[in-house]
Design goal:
The complex is a heterodimer of chains A (about 300) and B (about 300). Chain A is mainly alpha-helical and about 300 residues long. Chain A is built from 14 helices and no strands. Chain A has a domain of about 180 residues: Orthogonal Bundle (MetI-like fold), CATH 1.10.3720. Helix content of chain A is about 70%, strand content about 0%. In chain A, helix 7 packs antiparallel against helix 10. The longest helix of chain A is centred in the first third of the chain and has 37 residues. The termini of chain A are far apart. Chain B has two domains: about 45 residues; about 230 residues, Orthogonal Bundle (MetI-like fold). In chain B, strands 1-2 form a two-stranded antiparallel ribbon. The chains are: A mainly alpha (about 300), B mainly alpha (about 300). Chains A and B meet through helix 1, helix 3, helix 4, helix 5 and helix 9 of A and helix 1, helix 3, helix 4, helix 5 and helix 7 of B.
Amino acid sequence: MNFNKKLYSKVLEVCFYVSVGVVAFFMIIPFLWMISVSLKSSGHVTQTLSALIPRNITFKPYVDAWVGAHFSRYFLNTVIFTLGSTVFTLFFCALGGYTFARLRFPGRNALFLLILFSMMIPDSARLIPQFLIIKFFPLAGGNNLLGQGGIGLIDTYAGLMLPFVVTGFGIFLCRQFFVRLPEELRAAARIDGCSEFRIFYQIMLPLAKPAIIALAIFTFTFRWNKLLWPLVVTQSKGMRVLAVGLAIFQGEQRTLEQWNVMMAAATIVVLPMVLVFLLLQKHFTKGTSLSGLKE
Amino acid sequence: MFKKGRSRTSLSKRESINAYIFLSPILVLYTVFGLLPIGMLFYLSFTEYSVLTPPQWIGLENYKYLFLKDTVFIKSIINTSCFVVGTIFPTLFLGLLFAILVNRSLRGKGIIRSCIYLPYVTPVIAAALVWQFLYEPFEGGFMNYLLSWLGIKPINWLGTIRWALPSIMFMSIWRNVGFSMVLFLAGLQGIPERYYEAAKIDGANSVQQFWHITLPLLKPVILFILVLVTIGAFQVFQESYIMTEGGPALSTMTIVYWFYIVSFRSLSFGKGSAISFILAMMIFILSIFYLKVLKFREG
């Protein structure tokens, strides 16, 4: 009887592990498949699953994508766009969040409500107006003071980044965190004669590290993922980001034999995100729950 | 006494000045790129505008055209609604299921959790490309290979009206399920163990415990995921842009995709603005509705 019960729970345990394992395996199949095909030579792309592990590994598809299809350039552009804009976002949103959380000033609630309200408007709704503002940006790209005559900031890094420097979500996230820090710290620092900016920069900012890391990860991931904005605001090949490059590259290749180069290109797009995720895993999951569950 | 009062007012004055100094760059940028666009969008949606000539005020013509004559727009609303409804419930259900599976003590928990979360961190565009390959109609396509095990003939997943949208939905569920799992995990871990202990003493079995303790306490999490996934799903674009280009026969044309074509391929910025204003309104109303439900629950 006792033995039977033990056996039963053992069987249940095994079934449980198998089902969880199958789920996990199915979730990463697309990644395995992507890497497998990216290491095959053109003739072997259409082989079935039996050849999931390629027999003759070749790195030629990566060379073709990186050099031949200019993905090295797209990669550089993406790094500049994502990293650059994320750094600005972190600084401004932390400062804004701190100000809204800690400082008293007339119009505070009204301004914060305005930011909350505009957070509910989706990004795609701002696409046309942002495009026009960038195009008619005064005194840039041949434009005169009224924004006429040239192309403005179209096809520049500034044009790519400017609309995303300050985000309502970032300010909101940081404010929620700063509100919970003890006020005594600030009072003590002020008695010691610290300026308000030094209180923010040297005392409060280091304490807000979990929120900043969470925001950094979110911002970085979202921007690495962005397609629509870079698609409309960049025009020359030399300014394309990875997402745009991959979309256009896919549009040009239509034969089955090219799938290995496309999968190599996809791997180049995915790999940095996967690495960032594996390195900062704890912060990822913590950040996901920090973003909204508390308060 | 008088002096103390004065120093306090000057202190609060200084604080206000500081606040506005800190906020000035933020407010300028946010006004120009965050708030001004909302007003511009509203105005442009009542005009005919192609960048080359100044906008012409035409009143409600764009809206009339979209709802009465533009069959593609209507089709895109139907498709997007199907996509939203068809993805949010599986995402919620599977997310909860995986969270419960992973929440108990088991070896290799971390690895399994990472495997399930990994799709969410991959850029949509790359994921769409890989899935396009998995859906290839030839025998080597992974999905058809799986079917061949079951003795089913290959299906042209992305090339037929019947399967194209469900295929994209399936991929989207695959990508989002890890996100909802992580949120559910956080929710599950927030439920105090003593509730379950008390229920056990009262003789509740695990199904009853789930139904009467876990599920009611997870309601805020469920609503939160519902809001985020719905807002994301309404804006689905990259998947059909890459995998099907809206086809076959417009069966995967989505609102944002149509908005992109109308605005940046046909350069009808007025009509494009009207489309994205309608979309923004749909999302806005839905968010308010969800918020009301949340508030109602708390009160």
